[in-house]
Write a structure and sequence with these properties.
Largest sheet: 5 strands, mixed
Strand order of the largest sheet: 1-2-5-4-3
Radius of gyration: 25 Å
Distance between the termini: 52 Å
Order of helices and strands: HHHEHEHEEEHHHHHHHEHHEEEEHEHHHE
Number of helices: 18
Structural class: alpha+beta
């Protein structure tokens, strides 16, 4: 497939998306067979919920909706809004993987509570959060009010939920209220617009997909692949759920009649060749609603938008780049993964390999000889805050000319360490630590002496300053240089065993293993062996 085909545009044609389809061919028998095999393979990973489990989710959502209605009516009466007998109510919407129909067993549900204009955000985070704690089946309630998109995280009857809040400029929210009308955003505060965006984007994605059945099965496969290959995490610089959904949706637009197996294959074909930073769009960006005043992704007008490395633009107003966290390293890693997956899919299409080969987990700790370990105290809110800053540490590492790649593993690892010596009659005190690991690849042509101490201290100071108000006791945060042979001191034995099959350094970087390049690997290994990294522990 040529790049021209990927980006061809025929303004007068009738099609979904911003360009004409690459192929409108109907599935062949072999495509349907491969799709059936793909579905069977996904079932082995226990992704699909039973009908009973789905009913349980619906019941939990019903309980949440009932609580929201009761709470809004109580708040309305307390504020003396209208006749107490009138129906002053709100509505619970779902979005994300549950709304798309691709959620996995045990996954959380993204929800949005839409309230009328007299219900304040402060009411939601105070009294509604308190109402949640009174539910007999609630396990915890955590209000994160200062997040970019404020949220209440909770667990009701075994189901985890993220609950966002938005109030509309309406006296009442009817049962049949929809959110697609852009005029609903007029005069709303920015936080409400961000909260509404999840639902609006999800519904737009579904409306712009020509074949929902192929889309859903294809997206399930791509999300599983991304998680198994360690490239599923928006906050750490990879892609999150909505970004993967938009890429699969774009593939479906380019192959509107294709079966799911073909969609998965073409997904890797298209995006291994995509001319980044050319943006991926599901529909053209329309300026007609610019009078609403919300910023829209536009590299011609907004300087910071020009530096986005892998833009995937949401289809709903105000259109935003869902991948602004992507770094040079994470883009390189994802493109390499696309190329490797394409090779596997080519073999699957020819009957040489099975779908299970596509979902082989990445052997992250076999790829690199040197790692940066970020070690923190295991506290839920502290972990979330530090995770949101990890990409800044990666960017700092990338800024060193000696470092060719800084590969952050999205998986976290925990260990228990002693904090005091045992005394007579009592055991030693211990604490739990959470760890991220960043694998490093060095440019052998540059100096092999790298001093990261100053940047690491700056990173730790930045995290502590942003957390000072919420964490006055300064929870532990430490950054260390760890060699591969030292990983046994940090990781569980089963993780070490899974990573013993070590690919070549060239394979790690997606480089063909020719004789000349095998020599390059040998030379690079030699330079790594004498590398000196200065990264003094800092707490």
């Amino acid at each position: 497939m040529s790049q021209n085909n990927i980006n061809s545009v025929e303004p007068d044609a009738q099609y979904s998306g911003v360009s004409a389809p690459i192929s409108e061919a109907e599935p062949k028998d072999i495509d349907l067979v491969l799709t059936k095999k793909l579905e069977e393979c996904l079932s082995v990973f226990n992704l699909f919920e039973s009908e009973e489990e789905m009913i349980h989710r619906v019941n939990v959502l019903s309980q949440l909706n009932d609580l929201a209605q009761k709470w809004i009516r109580t708040q309305s009466e307390a504020k003396k809004i209208g006749d107490p007998a009138s129906l002053s109510s709100g509505k619970i919407f779902t979005f994300g993987s549950f709304r798309l129909g691709v959620h996995t067993k045990g996954a959380d549900i993204d929800t949005l509570l839409v309230a009328p204009r007299h219900i304040a955000r402060e009411d939601f985070f105070r009294s509604f959060a308190q109402e949640l704690t009174q539910m007999p089946t609630v396990e915890y309630v955590r209000a994160i009010e200062d997040a970019f998109v404020p949220v209440i995280k909770t667990k009701i009857d075994g189901i985890e939920l993220d609950i966002l809040f938005a109030r509309l400029a309406l006296k009442n929210i009817p049962v049949n209220q929809e959110l697609k009308d852009d005029e609903l955003l007029r005069n709303l505060e920015q936080k409400c617009v961000r909260s509404l965006n999840g639902c609006r984007v999800t519904d737009d994605i579904l409306s712009l997909v020509p074949n929902k059945e192929s889309f859903r099965l294809g997206l399930r496969a791509i999300k599983l692949w991304a998680k198994r290959r360690g490239v599923y995490s928006n906050v750490l610089g990879y892609l999150g759920g909505v970004s993967w959904a938009m890429l699969v949706a774009r593939t479906c637009q380019l192959y509107p009649r294709a079966a799911a197996a073909t969609i998965v294959h073409k997904f890797f074909l298209v995006f291994s060749q995509w001319p980044w930073p050319k943006p991926v769009l599901l529909r053209k960006i329309d300026d007609k609603l610019s009078d609403l005043g919300f910023p829209v992704w536009d590299p011609k007008r907004t300087v910071q938008d020009r530096f986005h490395l892998m833009p995937i633009i949401t289809p709903s107003y105000p259109q935003q780049n869902s991948t602004f966290n992507v770094t040079a390293s994470s883009r390189k890693i994802m493109i390499n993964e696309f190329e490797n997956a394409l090779a596997i899919c080519n073999d699957i299409m020819q009957g040489k390999r099975e779908w299970s080969d596509l979902f082989e987990p990445v052997a992250f700790f076999s790829k690199y000889k040197h790692f940066i370990a970020l070690i923190i105290a295991s506290q839920p809110e502290w972990t979330g805050l530090v995770e949101s800053k990890v990409r800044f540490l990666v960017s700092h590492l990338e800024s060193h000319q000696e470092i060719e790649l800084a590969h952050v593993n999205p998986n976290t690892y925990t260990r228990t360490v002693p904090v005091s010596e045992p005394t007579e009659g009592s055991e030693a005190e211990t604490e739990s630590e959470t760890m991220w690991f960043i694998g490093l690849v060095f440019d052998k042509s540059k100096s092999v002496h790298v001093n990261l101490t100053e940047g690491i201290r700056y990173f730790i100071s930045t995290v502590r300053n942003s957390a000072a108000a919420r964490f006055p006791d300064e929870p532990k945060i430490e950054v260390k240089h760890v060699k591969r042979k030292e990983l046994v001191n940090y990781l569980p034995n089963e993780v070490i065993r899974r990573n013993r099959s070590r690919p070549s350094l060239n394979q790690s970087l997606g480089i063909a293993d020719t004789p000349n390049k095998r020599k390059l690997e040998s030379d690079n290994d030699e330079s790594l062996a004498v590398t000196r990294i200065r990264a003094e522990p800092a707490c």
